[in-house]
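Notes from the 1:1 (GR / supervisor)

We went over the backlog. Supervisor wanted to see one worked example end to end before approving the batch request, so GR pasted a single chain during the call. The sequence is below; no edits were made to it. Supervisor asked that the structure be written out right there so they could see what the output format looks like.
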Amino acid sequence: MCFGPENARIASVVRGPQAIIDYLAGLVRFSSRRYLGHSPAGGAMVVALLIMIAATAGSGMASLAAMEGRGPLSAVIEREPPPRALGQRRPPPLIRGIHQVLGNATLALVVLHVAGVVLASCAHRENLMAAMITGRKRSE
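Structure output shown during the call:
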């Protein structure tokens, strides 16, 4: 996102909170401004998804280290002791719980992203899914 077409660069994707709110308010009324690159809401979703995916991956690596003593974080995260008796249940560790919450939040963001793409496609009368795949939008 630092290289490539101007509309794909981070500087053109990230906008302030007021721009995002104004865009979303217009979108639900089907009167929002059309953007050739990412809309303010689309840019915010890109940033949110990147952060959540990184956090989910990091917590997954931490969980693997804590549960099984393996992975890239195994040198810095202590492995949990095994259960005392065979079949004994123990509460899930904090790291695994955090990983599950982050994973579910990431999935929720994906669902919101898809819903936003569908709504914006309808509002702007264009196929944003095709634009995401080809990298091309009508320029009008």
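Supervisor's comment: Helices lie at 10-13, 17-28, 40-68, 94-124, 128-134.
Batch request approved.
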